[in-house]
Amino acid sequence: MRIAATFGLNQIVSHGFGVFLFAALVPLMREDIALTHWHLATIGAVSQLAYLGGALLLGVIGHRLSSATLALGTGTISTGLLFTMSQVQDPLIITIVLATLAASAAISWGTIVEIISRCAKPEQCSTQLSCAGSGTAWGYGINGLLILVVVPSLGWQASWQAAAAFGVFVVVMTWRLLASISGDEARKTAGPATNSSADTNIPAANTIAAKKLFSVIINERTALFSCVICFLVGLSAMPFATWFNTYLDELGLPAALGGYTWGIVGLSGMVAGFVAGFIADRMGHAIALLVIFSGFGMCLACFIYQPSRYALIAGFGYGLMYFPVWGILAGWIRQRFSSTATMQISSICMVTSGLGGALGNLLAGYIREVSGSLDLVYLAITMVVLLLVLLMIFIICLDLKKNQAVTIG
């Protein structure tokens, strides 16, 4: 699990800080920087489009580049930009920095998928991917601590600086891990041939040509459903995270509640990463997805009924759903494709997630502007999650029919 733990640290930096720290700090940053609601909507949408661009770039040319170079490069870039966020005051520059962080995060996760898919045993693939993905949950938890501990005494700028310092540590740890993996692979290459590779019995080609990638996704059921799921996850999860602290502020609730909620998000995500991955490897990926989507839907229903009372419950459900979903989907795809092809398809999944997130944030900004409240935004998010639950039930029914047909045949 050393690989999963190290790349979990990368997720803290690239996603926990690079994608979500701004959402946690924005009510405090607005006291010093003139950020309007339309600035927030634009930042959310542009960041998601940048995430889309980074993922698409990785899907098209990522197989031509060294995974080690991509992992170290994205870690270094993210670390530098996190420090930059503590120094800038202009909304335009903030938008550019956050967009670059989002693109780097997308490339980072795709690289993690390739490395873990290549190195992990097939029966542990989803568990390790989910554990690595839950590093974002640890980032959420740390974000909550930054709000509660660092900001009151040192200001919001110190939070970005602390995140950058942690990024330096992670880059060093990643470099040491990749050097170890490279040495192990060199020894295996020099030794006797073996069939123990994680790619054994995978029928797909090692890579998918860029011009055939979209055709493969459209015609292969697992890949297609994974992309649809990611779109709906982006459509619901991204507006939830972007506007959550703003919604609590709109309701006149204390900023500390947002800090506690993000802490709960992190704690639930830490546990869900292992548990959901274990369920996926033992009971099936569709069952694991149904469990996490249903849990998030029930928590959201409580939240929209009484936000002030059930904010922590909403955070728990969000952590339960958001962090393991990426590892589960990557493990699901890995059952049908090689590690490199899994990285390519997972990158397109991130593209669809980015499209969903951009659309969701723009719609949230429009609804907020028209209605003057975010109440309808969170009701719409709940409806999207319900659609995810129904989609998973449909997929499970398809699998049951397929298994019955095979048994009868």
Task: List key phrases describing it.
409 residues; mainly alpha; Growth Hormone, Chain: A; 15 helices; 0% strand
Write the layout of secondary structure elements.
Elements: H1 2-17, H2 21-29, H3 37-61, H4 67-85, H5 91-119, H6 125-133, H7 135-154, H8 156-190, H9 210-219, H10 221-250, H11 255-283, H12 285-305, H13 307-334, H14 339-371, H15 375-408
Helix pairs in contact: 1-4, 1-5, 1-6, 1-7, 1-8, 2-10, 3-5, 3-14, 4-5, 4-8, 5-6, 5-14, 6-11, 6-13, 7-8, 7-11, 9-10, 10-13, 10-14, 10-15, 11-12, 11-13, 12-13, 12-15, 13-14
Label the structural class: mainly alpha
Compute the number of structural domains. 1
Count of discrete alpha- or pi-helical segments spanning 4 or more residues: 15
CATH superfamily: MFS general substrate transporter like domains
Could you report the average pLDDT, rounded to the nearest whole number?
A: 84
The N- and C-terminal alpha carbons lie at a distance of 40 Å
Q: Can you describe this structure?
A:
The protein has a single domain, classed as MFS general substrate transporter like domains (Growth Hormone, Chain: A, Up-down Bundle), CATH 1.20.1250. It starts with a helix and ends with a helix. α1 (2-17) runs antiparallel to α5 (91-119). It has 409 residues and is an all-alpha fold. The model is unreliable at 193-205 (pLDDT under 50). The chain has helices at residues 2-17, 21-29, 37-61, 67-85, 91-119, 125-133, 135-154, 156-190, 210-219, 221-250, 255-283, 285-305, 307-334, 339-371, 375-408.
